[in-house]
């Protein structure tokens, strides 16, 4: 990033007040808190320590950082600590990198119902992996794993998907003994995708019936049970994207990759080129002509 390029904090400080005013009533408390933390990060608003040279009297202030997990300036050390903790838990068994992706029609619902839909994604992905692995016709073992949510792709498009690092080893469901599976095959991706699709749609239907979902703007009509049911029916007919493959360079490489995203927002300061008359210019991958739902 060039020396004169603005960062996320600079943009929030300059354009944040007008942005809040324009979207008053639509921004949730979490988004507002994140903006406030990033704007105040390493400024006098959070306090700090002032050092003074005993010879020339020059004063230098070191302001406190906000510590918010979304702040692009604060989370390098936290990400490294997370990576070390995960690496210490790696077992001497084959691992698989498994990705579950929410299809585009449901991603629009997730945008306005992040907590509810993301909880469903984590819960159903874990159920999918544990159920299929415990099937005696497949692996027949109780397994664990680590899942990390990504909400954007490298083209800066809203793209909710889960990265799961899963050991192909666990306790036999019949004997309780430890067993290790194949290092080249975990489970058929069509089986994983089909089970995940069924459980996500079932839980979304339950959430809608329990009035746990909200709909605004272009999808306000989905508050109607019949309209929502039509969306679920359409989602049931399409193939859902699931990938399962041995991690390139081992599980440690996946952990390093995921650690770069566990404690930062979608766009880093390094991508931002300029802020001019309310327009932010930044670098990203050029979108393809055809929608690409492959996870990144």
List the helices and strands and how they pair.
Blueprint: H1 8-22, H2 29-40, E1 48-52, E2 59-63, H3 76-87, E3 95-101, H4 104-112, H5 114-134, E4 141-142, E5 146-152, E6 158-167, E7 169-172, E8 178-180, H6 189-209, H7 225-237, E9 242-245, H8 251-259, E10 272-276, E11 279-282
Antiparallel strand pairs: 1-2, 3-6, 3-9, 4-7, 5-6, 7-8, 10-11
Describe the structure in your own words.
The chain has 296 residues and is α+β, with helices and mostly antiparallel strands. The protein is 38% helix and 19% strand. It is built from eight helices and eleven strands. The strands form four sheets. It has a four-stranded antiparallel β-sheet with strand order 5-6-3-9, sandwiched between helices. It has a three-stranded antiparallel β-sheet with strand order 4-7-8. A two-stranded antiparallel sheet has the order 1-2. Strand 1 and strand 2 (59-63) form a beta hairpin. Helix 3 runs antiparallel to helix 8 (251-259), helix 5 (114-134) packs across helix 6 and helix 6 (189-209) runs antiparallel to helix 7. It is globular. Residues 289-296 have low confidence and may be disordered.
Task: Give the structural class.
Answer: alpha+beta
Number of strands: 11
In the sheet with the most strands, the strands line up as 5-6-3-9
The proportion of strand residues reads 15-25%
């Amino acid at each position: 990033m060039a020396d004169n390029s603005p960062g996320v904090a600079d943009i929030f400080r300059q354009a944040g007040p007008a942005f809040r005013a324009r979207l008053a009533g639509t921004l949730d408390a979490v988004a507002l808190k994140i903006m406030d933390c990033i704007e105040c990060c390493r400024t006098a608003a959070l306090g700090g320590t002032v050092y003074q040279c005993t010879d020339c009297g020059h004063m230098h202030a070191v302001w406190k950082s906000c510590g918010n997990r979304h702040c692009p300036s604060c989370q390098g050390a936290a990400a490294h600590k997370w990576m070390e903790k995960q690496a210490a838990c790696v077992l001497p068994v084959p691992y698989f990198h498994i990705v579950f992706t929410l299809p585009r029609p449901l991603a629009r619902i997730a945008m306005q119902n992040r907590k509810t839909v993301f909880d469903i994604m984590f819960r159903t992905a874990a159920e999918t992996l544990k159920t299929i692995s415990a099937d005696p016709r497949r692996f027949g073992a109780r397994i664990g794993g680590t899942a990390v949510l990504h909400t954007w792709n490298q083209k800066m498009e809203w793209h909710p998907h889960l990265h799961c690092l899963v050991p192909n080893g666990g306790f036999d469901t019949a004997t309780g003994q430890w067993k290790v599976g194949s290092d080249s095959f975990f489970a058929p991706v069509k089986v994983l995708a089909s089970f995940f699709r069924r459980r996500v749609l079932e839980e979304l239907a339950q959430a809608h019936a329990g009035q746990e979902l909200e709909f605004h703007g272009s999808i306000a009509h989905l508050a109607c049970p019949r309209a929502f049911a039509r969306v679920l029916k359409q989602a049931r007919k399409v193939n859902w994207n699931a990938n399962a493959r041995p991690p390139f360079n081992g599980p440690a490489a996946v952990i390093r990759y995921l650690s770069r995203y566990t404690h930062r927002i979608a766009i880093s300061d390094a991508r931002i080129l300029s802020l001019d008359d309310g327009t932010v210019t930044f670098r990203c991958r050029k979108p393809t002509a055809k929608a690409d739902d492959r996870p990144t």
